[in-house]
Write a structure and sequence with these properties.
Layout lengths: L2 H8 L13 E2 H4 L7 H7 L3 H7 L1 E5 L5 E3 L6 E4 H6 L2 H19 L15 H16 L4 H8 L6 H10 L10
Bound molecules: zinc ion.
Length: 173
């Protein structure tokens, strides 16, 4: 028996290793999304079925939102839901719903072979969010502002914007 296994066998505790997160029906907190054209384009005839069974989990950590790569449920920072701008939250939901569909199709959501801004799953999700932002009348600068996050470098932002066929000025413009 090696040292680590010996140490394990000396532990006098029992840790239940199948945690259950507490989740809520998506529709309890996000209403009317099944009527949004962009959402219907994401799920097509499965829109009601998917949104009707989707779960949302609220986390206490700061952050925005994401999709679990274990079971495809939506994870939202409670702080962000309380304090974020409504339009940002709305566009993020559109973005994440694309990931929900990708998960259901069996796509790898966090493919580390790609940089974040080049990852096909991210590009598709951003494309839906940006199209929706255009439809709602947001200007180019406002959309860039929406895309800008503290963990994306200015260079990555410009690369993403180019991929999404957005107008981008040179630095300083
Ligand atoms: Zn994403």
């Amino acid at each position: 028996m090696n040292g680590l296994m010996a140490a394990d066998s000396r532990l006098n505790v029992d840790i239940i290793r199948n945690p259950r997160v507490s989740t809520y029906p998506f529709a309890d907190y996000f209403r009317g999304f099944e009527k949004v054209g962009a959402v219907r384009r994401i799920f097509k005839e499965r829109t009601e079925e998917v949104l009707g069974t989707l779960k949302v989990e609220f986390m206490s950590r700061r952050g925005y939102m994401g999709v679990s790569d274990e079971d495809g449920h939506l994870i939202v920072s409670a702080y962000y839901l309380r304090n974020g701008r409504l339009i940002d939250i709305y566009l993020d939901v559109i973005h994440e719903l694309v990931h929900v569909r990708q998960f259901l199709e069996g796509s790898k959501l966090f493919d580390e072979d790609y940089d974040y801004v080049d990852r096909p799953t991210e590009v598709e999700a951003y494309r839906y969010a940006v199209e929706e932002a255009h439809r709602l009348g947001l200007g180019n600068e406002e959309i860039l502002e929406y895309l800008r996050t503290e963990w994306m470098s200015e260079e990555d932002l410009r690369r993403l914007a180019r991929t999404l066929h957005m107008k981008i000025g040179s630095p300083g413009e």
